[in-house]
Amino acid sequence: MPAQAIAAQCLRLELLGHGRVRAWLRSSVRPQPGQCMLARLGAGPEPYLCSVLFPVAFEPELWAIELAPGDAGRDWLQPGCSLELLGPVGRPAALPAAKGNLLLIANTQPARLLPFAAATLAAGGAALLLLARPYPVESLDARIEVRIGHLPALVREHSAWPALAIAHVEPQPAPELAALLAQIPNAHVLLHLCLPCGVGACQACTIRTRAGWKLACTAGLLWPLAELQAQP
Amino acid sequence: MALLELAPNHKTGLALRSRAVAASGCWGFADEYAGLVDFAQLGAFITNPLTYAPRQPAAARAALPFPGGVLLHTGLPNPGLRSAVQTYAAKWARMPCPVIVHLALNSGAEVTQCLALLEQLENVAALELGFRADEHAHTISELVRAACAGMLPVLAALPFERAAECAPIAARAGAQVLSVSAPPRGTLPGPVSGRLYGHGVFPGALHNLQAVQALTDLPLLAGGGVHTAEQAQALLAAGAAAVQLDSVVWSQPAQLPALLQALAL
Would you state the CATH architecture of domain B4-262? Predict the structure, then answer.
């Protein structure tokens, strides 16, 4: 489905702790795991570009985004607010079967990986979330195990466990972490990119894959690590 | 229906149904924004820059937001004109506004080869030549002269930093329209250099337009940081025949209807 303008409304907010808030949105089109939406959160001129909104949870007819202190729109977004979304950006995730052990690795935006955990748990699998910094873990599904610490050390400790691993690291996995991820079969990366346009027009989100250069906003934001070439 | 003749001195001319033009570098190669914008409301669509040979993304590419704007360093990746024609010609033909192909070329010989491809295409109504910020005057002249030997109207996109210097060169070489809308270049800590887009670009764009307008009688296609109808009107009042809309399509797409309305004929 090509990106389109989609009206959305914020229906409710959940305070998660650590200043984080989860905003539940209703829109006629929802992003799927692996996709995002772009939107201006606020009426002012800043930030200049639209915010990148990944889904973090789903309910029937609703989907949620998560905002941290300092994020654009953190104080603006309230129940009743109307948003104009652009999207969906990227492609729905095409992952191996969800059943099995899922390892999730994140530093700044772990919530963006939660839809993958939900799918694995629903299929009877187990999910382990490795974090680089504190997060309101009490807001997570209690079945998700969490470890917080130095990501390379944590990944090294758990690298033999997963059937599938997904990393979402800003701005991109450092060489040590990337090398460790490369040893995990079925390691994937949810790309952390600036997306000025979201429709393949601006050429800002080029990624180098084994099949050549791609635009992440159209070719997809979730990639098997083995298909990505090292980014200079 | 009212029409704006942007290239009155050219044999075939370049008739626009609106003073709003999609700027090169922001709207893609063809229909990337077709799901979001009614292209029938545009006077023309200018493609992203195309080179003669395929061009890879820059190794150190970057998109860095800063207060009020964004710095983009992409390397202007593109498939090269021959491949682009194969991919986009049918889309260009179907677009409800004229297509202007933006070319970033190195020599008159490349221009000649590109003309042979472009002049065969339906709905490609003109070409816009882009130049590097440090392009030598002789090269600008060579490229424009070679382009003007063809059948399509030629727009010369003046480098932002040297617009007034390059305008007479392009005019003497035969350009039918001067495009005063190329984004400025800048550097952010890193350091990372690239094209600048955003609110802060507009004052410089208006300044350039006034400077070029004082030097030439050619039609001027102006732009740079236009985000409001008032800014678009200011460019028209300063002598622009039409206005290029650039990164507003990324940052404030909700502003587009008002801008298109303000620029309607």
Answer: Alpha-Beta Barrel (3.20)
